[in-house]
Amino acid sequence: MRGTHVKRLLSAAAISLALASSALAQSKELVVGAFGGAYTDAIKKNIASFEKENDVKVTFVPASGADGLAKAMAKELDVVHADMAWAYRGEAQGAFEKLDPSIVTNLANLYPKARFSEYGVITNFGQYGIAYNQKDVNPAPTSWLDLWKDQYSGAVTTAGFDAANIELLVLMAKLNGGSEDNIDPGFKKMAELGKHINVFYSQHPQLLDLFRTGEVVMARWLRGRVDWANKQGVALNFAVPSEGAIGLVSTVHVVKGRPNTALAMKFVNHLLTAESQKTYATDLGYTPARAGLDLAGVDVPYGDQVVNSLLISDWKKIVPKMDAWKERWEKEVVAR
């Protein structure tokens, strides 16, 4: 009887252990901070295979910019998306793990420009250029400096102090003898542009309406947004300036100090697979960071020449100066 009792106890213990192990396996979760909307939807499109292969549930939460970095610093995320500004801020604050090439093996398949840091990687690129109404802008713009033409004064615009305008600021500095280390020539030139702008747009629908009403005929805008505007019935063209298109970049990082570091690395690697990378093109109109993809029939700019020509400044130099530059922007460019 005693032996039977012991066997029953051992059997019960084994069942309890199995149930606990099963519950633990089912509770394995990877928390990913992403930009939300269509961007997150595109990532989710190929997530089922990753979840199955790694026996994990991926949970997406909205997180970008300052909010994304705050959540990363609070260890609320395993993976976080960012742009170059917040990528380098996070790196400086020790928020991210170094990517492990033995796990993130797809790093080897990326354009060199995508591997900007040991602590993060670019997943996709976009193009900022000049959106214009062909009826009112003739000849078509060929340079960023066309935004400065007196004949369009009051009918041009750009956004506020965002990453793309920081790139434009640095470009104007470089065209006038300056650099990231000598930004004064850039501010002087951008202050001249500010005099031509009646409204700095803050939202894409706002700029769409400005084009629709004719208040704006030319603006710095994303290529994909010009495609969107045409679908909304506002006929616009897109020009890549001779100086180059300003690069929009999306970055991804593994958060330091979380228990799922290896799994988070695998997730980053998943975002860089051929299948996932194609989705950035087909669903979002972005240029994939992975080289050698077959994108026949997909209307997105792609290839060595496209990626290498994108204007991307030295953000490691820019980030420590951003707060001071923002103050100058408001005083010298907006207030004018």
TrEMBL record:
GO molecular function, one term: thiamine binding
One of the GO BP terms on file: thiamine transport
One GO term describing the cellular component: outer membrane-bounded periplasmic space
Signal peptide: 1-25
Protein name: ABC transporter substrate-binding protein
Coiled coil ranges: none
Domain of life: Bacteria
Pfam families, alphabetized: SBP_bac_8
Keyword DNA damage: no
UniProt xrefs under SUPFAM superfamilies: Periplasmic binding protein-like II (SSF53850)
Keywords: Periplasm, Plasmid, Signal
UniProt keyword Signal, yes or no: yes
